[in-house]
Amino acid sequence: MVMLSQYQNKPINLSNKWNKSTNFTGIPVIDLSYPDDAKNLMVKACQDYGFFKVINHGVPLRLATELENETMRFFNMSQSEKDKYCSPSPFGYGTNTIGPNGDVGWVEYLLFASNNIPTHSKTFSSLAKEYVEAVRNLGCEILELMADGLKIEPKSVLSRMLSDEKADNVFRLNHYPPCPNHPSTRNGWNPIGFGEHTDPQLISIARSNTTSGLQICLPDGTWVPVPPDHTSFFINVDDLLQVMTNGRFKSVKHRVIIADRMKSRVSMIYFGGPPLMEKISPLGSVMEPGEESLYQEFTWFEYKACTYRTRLADDRLSFFQKG
Ligand code: GA4
Which principal EC class is assigned to this enzyme (predicted)? Predict the structure, then answer.
């Protein structure tokens, strides 16, 4: 990987960054083996932070570990081997560059549509297929619990978009290699692995190895680290879910910083998006009588096109806000 200049990849000074927020008591943990509690706790977590962790989720640890090992087999290949793989536009193998508009990070990645899994290795593609299917089912279960917790009918009103055969689901494998000699090391700053942003889809389901680095931004602007847990999944509320709940659920701003320069971090993220032509607007059943929609109606196709015209940190929802 190429070393980035500090100007392209503004590092972060972590001192006094996460002691401001008074009410934050840690990342909400939701146990899916108790659905009645889970649905209410989930709604609260989505309203408070747009982020939570699920345990007892039913996805075999073996599957995640094996896919992670296969993923590392890919990233451990020589740079010239990896460069033979198609470069992202938007799908493929990428290094340092994120998206088409000049964003960079200390990261290399594989990004692909979940119905078009890379075939560089048979083992990889069969594990990735199995994993994406398992995580998509988990996404549907979570969206049904959310609908139930919000008391909206039918329960499948959100999950049907992920289970649709035309669902626009994306899968991303990120590798943040060790960087003991990164230039920002000298003044105690932390390099950025993946800059701050919200995810544009409905829901993102992330799993990482045991290396720290993920941070979320609380509503008061405080950044807090998310302690890694390779046995659990971290769930993000994405932009479309914020719109469909008319702002009740918060699309969570997050980023990855290189907190430990000696350890490699690997994450696997499934982004659940609806079919491209799906019209997105607040669900009638979440609205109070007389409540007005905060957003203009748009299709996922239109929103997605907008994301690719913007920079990572831009507030894409603001283009669709009314008034
Ligand atoms: C953020 C969430 C997903 O990783 C992603 C990213 C996409 C990309 O890497 O191609 C984007 C980014 C993400 C949002 C703004 C645009 C598009 C990079 C970028 C600068 C795959 C996605 O769907 O949106």
Answer: oxidoreductase
**Catalytic machinery residues:** 265
What is the topology classification, in CATH, of domain 29-320?
Answer: Jelly Rolls (2.60.120)
Gap from CA of 308 to ligand 1 centroid (Å) = 7
Prediction pTM value: 0.94
Instruction: Provide the token pair at 37.
Output: 């509690």
Low-confidence ranges of the chain (pLDDT < 50): 5-8, 15-19
Mutate to test the pocket of ligand 1, among 241, 303, 308 (most ligand atoms within 8 A of CB): 308
pLDDT digits (tens, 9 = 90+) for 162-186: 999 999 999 999 999 998 888 776 6
Q: What is the pLDDT of residue 120?
A: 86
HSE toward the beta carbon, residue 46, CA cutoff 13 A: 32
Q: What angle do CA 158, 160, 162 make, to 5 degrees?
A: 90
Greatest Cα pair distance in the chain: 60
**Is the distance from CB of 265 to CB of 208 less than 8 angstroms?**
yes
As to burial, measured by CB atoms within 10 angstroms (0-12 exposed, 13-18 middle, 19+ buried), residue 280 is buried
Domain definitions of the chain by residue range: 29-320
Alpha-carbon distance values, 115 to 104, 167, 202, 289 (Å)? 27, 9, 18, 40
